[in-house]
Task: structure prediction
Amino acid sequence: MKLNYKYVRIQGQELAANTMYAKGIFSMCWQLIQNDIMDEEDVGLFKEIDSWFAENLPWPPQCKNRELVVCFFKTENTEEMMKMIRPALWLLEKYHHPYYLVYTNTPGEIVYEDKYQVVVKVSGKLDIEDVQPSWSPED
Result:
């Protein structure tokens, strides 16, 4: 069975303080720069990547206003975007920074959409639930 997903997000293990949601790839790379972890040459590479996205990907008003939102790429139109983001993935790998590609059809409440991305509203709080009782027949 082949599943077709509508959206993908590249995110890390750490949570953003404002959204309480896993940081995205741009935040993770900027954090490596701000923490003086990246070499100068790699900083230049990431800044080129970031500039390309700033010129080619619309900047949603919700992101400009620092609302409690996160972004997902649309899988149907992300071939060029993913080609341009691969060097940033390489940088995360080079500096041993874990990341995940999260594919979904249900990212949450979409508050903005353009050709390449959707912006999804998040609550800004972390819901922690108890672990369900074991379903193992041996317990």
Notes: The chain has four helices and six strands. The chain has one domain: 7-121. The mean pLDDT is 93. Residues 20 and 98 are 18 Å apart (CA to CA).
